[in-house]
Fold these 2 entries.
Entry 1:
Amino acid sequence: MNSRTSKITVTRPFLPPLKEFEPFLEKIWKNKWVTNKGPFHQEFEEALREYLGVPYISLFSNGTLALLTALQALRISGEVITTPYSFVATTHALYWNGIKPIFVDIEPRTLTLDPRRIEAAITPQTTAILGVHVYGNSCLTDEIQKIADIYGLKVIYDAAHAFGVTQNGRSILNFGDLSVLSFHGTKVFNTFEGGAIVSHDLVTKQRIDFLKNFGFADEVTVVGPGINGKMNEFQAAMGLLQLKYIDTLIQKRKMISEYYKQGLHHIKGLHFLDEPDNVQYNYSYFPIFINHNLFGFSRDQVYEKLKEKNIWGRRYFYPLISEFPTYRGLPSSQKENLKVAHQASESVICLPLFPDLTQKEMRRVVRAVREMAGHGITAVSGVKELNKIIANE
Ligand SMILES: *Cc1c(COP(=O)(O)O)cnc(C)c1O
């Protein structure tokens, strides 16, 4: 296939040059230490803590086990208030802990939990709020914390999309009681698979570390019903290497996002999310929202037409979690309760966005969308400028 028709996927993991990974492998072979707090695990944990600017962090084999463990660590039970507009693992983690998810609608600017709707969903069984910094957009953390303080609730953030995002210069991973990261291959920062929990005091970090290792505090003491959530040496080595590249990778993502913004602005019936001034964003996703009447095609038509051109966007997050068989019977899953979430879910497409996306590929994406809207590409001078910038990179 030539470059006009080659497949463009929504994401692609960044892998550093294989040569740079080999010395790590040689060390692992020499040490014969493959997991259980090996030297790379310890080094990566400290390097990551420093990079992210957080007080304590515990590494995990994936984000879902980290979510499960975060809920266990704080002994969350009963009901938890959460968002339906996320990847399904967010709610599954509640379900696997025997916790009833209570869905609350999102607010339209950030697509995160709407704090104005939380209080009405609180019952005597409510123990926590589980928000998601979706697409790397910070939840309205001040408002959420205020409610949590009044009602004595814990706050956990699924920060799987929020690696490296800062607000007023401070990591948004510092909000709430715990924040959970994912380093899955599809995320901004990857260790093949991987995850972490950010905590704020040593006692909590220790409890998390015990729980991810079957509950072992020492050779003969098991403090609770733990699980196996440990990150291995191969993942940690990959993490150390990725840290060398992450700033450049985020910079590239930013350029691609700017290109899309310039190429797609002022198209009737198409909009994207604002980027607040006080936020240093990670450009993890580029969601566009299609208004069928104004744009001329429905979201699903746009999705199919892009696919015909071998451009594979993804409808993140469609269907809503509340629509899956496990959850659709819950009273809080009623469509009238989740109007904003339904609207976002029915109009969103995430465009291809990853550091290795080429200039040609970006242009193909912008052109395909503009053509659907009846616009040519050459009319946009901003795009020409950006083409130049990217060509000179
Ligand atoms: C990817 C993701 C997860 C799950 O992380 P894994 O590392 O794949 O287990 C959880 N929540 C959200 C919002 C995600 O995007």
Entry 2:
Amino acid sequence: MNTGTSITDRLVQLRQQIERVCRDSNRLPEEVRLLAVSKTFPLSAVEEAMRAGQLNFGENYLQEALGKINRCPAATWHFIGAIQSNKTREIASHFDWVHSVPSLKIARRLSAQRDPALPPINLLVQVNITGETTKSGVTPDQLPGLLDQARELDNLRLRGLMTMPEPGRDPTPAFRTLRELRDSLSAQLSLDAFTELSMGMSHDFEHAIREGATWIRVGTGIFGARG
Ligand SMILES: *Cc1c(COP(=O)(O)O)cnc(C)c1O
């Protein structure tokens, strides 16, 4: 997919690819934001991406992330990994976005533990569209109740939905379902900032953009293979 040899080269190619898919699907490139998933890659990789103009970074593992965040406070940091209850305090203190909120309980903890002097956390709820038992996230039928209660929490802003399609299957139906859920829930509950769809990774982001992604989460496509 990428013939570039450096992070900078890959970012340039990726941005061109995003623009092309946007043009082909009648979307504006500025509607699609690129989240560089830097898990397992060193600080130097984040710094190179920042020099190439990348601002938003996603991390899955808290301890690993904290070191990079402390050294790169100018970046915007997104938590995208599994969230255990005993990690919410640090996540609430160090991240501006959380894409992988799996339950009302975790949303409540993030809200309670966020410093009210900071801007609210931008929160996306992870949706398990196909109901796979191995995957975290809420099922579509749990979403209205969860959002209706989470909207009352201080220190959070409900921004949208995230999903990871089942591996090995055509991802398009899951992406489309996520978009339909966002549209219907944001109307039904009158959520004013509920605009975001975090979907698509290195191998399927083109499909995700066609189905309306506003954040694509790309790791290997920018940083190369993980060891
Ligand atoms: C690792 C990861 C990504 C990036 O995957 P790539 O295949 O490297 O692009 C995206 N989203 C989540 C939740 C991840 O854990």
